[in-house]
Recover the amino acids of this structure.
């Protein structure tokens, strides 16, 4: 089983997001700690479990990201992934999910693979688009938000359960497919010291657009763009209801009915 | 302007978030001609009477089970000669799975996970929270061309009432050799409770609930309110509630009319999933808890006293 894990480096979940005064569609990156996208950690963990179970093949991490993304890649390598490729070019700074998926598909279609694993969502743009576009561009099936998977290597099929609204379903597909990983699928391992040492030594080739055979101007490929980022509407602290529990509950219900009008 | 809304159904009923798409289109794009697009061998009767201008029934027996591969193929075939200006799809499981694939098939932009539409002269921007809601993006397409937008549940008012739309049936042949998943089984696990992401009211519990047995109490409260039960990550990681109920940055992002947080401290990752709720109530013994900073109504008290009283007074 050759597995490709697509990962992204994103701001830490607690990072303070401020917009750039000179460019309101961008955030100020200085002072932000970047981490491996938490959902992509589940993706790497699942790829390791599949490799351990099927007993052969390699796991290759692919990311489209600037130099700082190397830290996220090395985190994945330290967990146990075998290889990594980073795609970058300074024109890629504002790419959208479509362009991301397009570049991933160009890279992946030149490789031998049985399975592509992505995180459910990148917690910076929160778009939930890339994996499904990638599957379409590669003309292969997709199984998103999986809660378990079972691979049959002789039949070359994968059977997964998925969380759907109000329930779950079980689906099966012929490999290769794109699967996406939500929280709850597994518990990502901590890298061992040896894993970390090995990861440090690995070469991470960087591919440019030219290497991928892309001659178009990236600006012509991008389909959507952020015009402006604003802080969320601020919520002011409301009222603390005081008194005996019984009084407080009666007052709360009255306020919910008459003031907030939500009951 | 032509707006198509995708109507998701299970053979019998229409999903509520899809009715909100019609409400949103009516409110923000009042001039638009609205067409409801529904796929399946059979479609529910309700669809035929939706308050819209037209219905397109995309028909094939290969569409009985939802799969992104067959549905995106069928829709793109049905639309290939006339792509509307905007296609609205709900950010449900199906919508999230389908919309990106469809956008790639039609080669048109997708603006996903939106919570609003801004129309300013002829410019249309979609409101899309990023960074777990720590920034709100105004997003548009780079070219003046048709696009798809997925809209999160509870972003727009739902519509009721009936209309007398024109119904057009489009039969689509789906090739047998299309690379697709095969649906083996579908199971309903929430019964008659609405899904956390779509419920108008959510009663959520955190570590302050002390154990799984106490979530029964929240279920009871949710029931009398017609809502669903949510949970913080701590409660999920303890195994007190299933993952599908987790609210927050690595759980669900929701915006119900009313969110009641019981024994939840209000960590930033939790707030990422619920701070756009219309009204927030917090019940917590710690007056310093972060959750009070965003709550409209706070009760500094033991939830084990307050919640049973709420059930009693509301029943
Ligand atoms: C990458 C990452 C992603 C995360 N994603 C999420 C996420 O999606 N969702 C999420 O929720 N968290 C998430 N977290 C975790 C988050 O940081 C907090 O740890 C978590 O939200 C805390 O849960 P809690 O409020 O239930 O527990 P605690 O913080 O332990 O709070 C329990 C609260 O209960 C109160 N309490 C105790 N007893 C009572 C009583 N009898 N009556 C009333 N109140 C009582 C206490 O005063 C306290 O405020 C994430 C963290 C990371 C690092
Ligand atoms: N720049 C990127 N490089 C590699 N993979 C990515 C990139 N952006 C997104 N992905 C993958 O697609 C998933 C969903 O991202 P998104 O569509 O942005 O929410 C992520 O969890 C990654 O697995």
């Amino acid at each position: 089983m050759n597995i490709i894990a697509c990962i992204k480096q994103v701001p830490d979940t607690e990072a303070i997001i401020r917009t750039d005064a000179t460019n309101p569609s961008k955030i100020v990156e200085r002072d932000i700690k970047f981490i491996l996208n938490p959902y992509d950690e589940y993706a790497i963990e699942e790829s390791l479990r599949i490799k351990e179970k099927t007993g052969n093949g390699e796991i290759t991490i692919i990311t489209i990201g600037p130099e700082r993304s190397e830290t996220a890649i090395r985190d994945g390598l330290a967990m146990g992934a075998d290889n990594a490729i980073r795609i970058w070019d300074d024109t890629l700074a504002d790419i959208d999910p479509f362009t991301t998926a397009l570049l991933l598909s160009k890279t992946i279609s030149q490789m031998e693979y049985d399975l592509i694993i992505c995180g459910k969502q990148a917690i910076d743009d929160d778009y939930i688009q890339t994996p499904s576009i990638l599957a379409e561009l590669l003309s292969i099936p997709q199984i998103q938000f999986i809660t378990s998977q079972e691979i049959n290597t002789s039949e070359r099929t994968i059977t997964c359960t998925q969380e759907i609204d109000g329930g779950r379903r079980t689906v099966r597909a012929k490999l290769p497919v794109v699967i996406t990983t939500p929280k709850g699928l597994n518990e990502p391992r901590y890298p061992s010291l040896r894993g970390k040492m090995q990861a440090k030594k690995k070469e991470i080739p960087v591919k440019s657009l030219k290497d991928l055979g892309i001659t178009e101007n990236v600006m012509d490929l991008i389909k959507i763009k952020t015009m402006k980022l604003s802080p969320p509407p601020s919520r002011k602290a409301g009222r603390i209801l005081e008194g005996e529990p019984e009084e407080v509950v009666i007052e709360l219900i009255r306020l919910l009915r008459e003031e907030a009008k939500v009951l | 302007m032509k707006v198509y809304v995708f109507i998701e159904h299970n053979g019998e009923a229409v999903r509520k978030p899809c009715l909100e798409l019609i409400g949103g289109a009516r409110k923000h794009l009042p001039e638009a001609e609205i067409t409801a697009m529904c796929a399946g061998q059979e479609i529910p009767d309700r669809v035929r009477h939706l308050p819209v201008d037209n219905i397109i029934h995309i028909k094939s027996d290969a569409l009985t089970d939802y799969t992104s591969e067959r549905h995106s193929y069928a829709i793109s075939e049905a639309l290939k000669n006339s792509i509307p200006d905007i296609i609205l799809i709900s950010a449900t499981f199906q919508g999230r799975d389908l919309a990106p694939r469809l956008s790639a098939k039609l080669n048109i932009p997708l603006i996903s996970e939106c919570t609003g539409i801004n129309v300013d002269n002829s410019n249309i921007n979609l409101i899309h929270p990023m960074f777990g809601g720590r920034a709100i993006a105004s997003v548009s397409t780079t070219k003046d061309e048709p696009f798809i937008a997925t809209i999160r549940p509870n972003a727009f008012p739902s519509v009721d009432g009936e209309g007398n739309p024109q119904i057009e049936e489009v039969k689509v042949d789906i090739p047998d050799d299309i690379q697709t998943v095969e649906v083996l089984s579908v199971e309903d696990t929430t019964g008659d409770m609405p899904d956390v992401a779509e419920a108008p009211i959510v009663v959520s519990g955190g570590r302050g609930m002390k154990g799984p047995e106490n979530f029964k109490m929240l279920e009871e409260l949710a029931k009398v309110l017609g809502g669903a039960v949510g949970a913080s990550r701590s409660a999920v990681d303890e195994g007190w509630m299933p993952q599908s109920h987790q609210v927050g940055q690595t759980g669900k992002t929701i915006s119900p009319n009313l969110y009641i947080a019981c024994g939840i401290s209000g960590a930033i990752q939790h707030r990422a999933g619920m701070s756009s709720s219309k009204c927030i109530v917090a019940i917590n013994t710690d007056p310093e808890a972060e959750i009070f900073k965003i709550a409209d109504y706070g009760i500094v008290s033991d939830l084990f006293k307050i919640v049973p009283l709420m059930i009693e007074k509301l029943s």
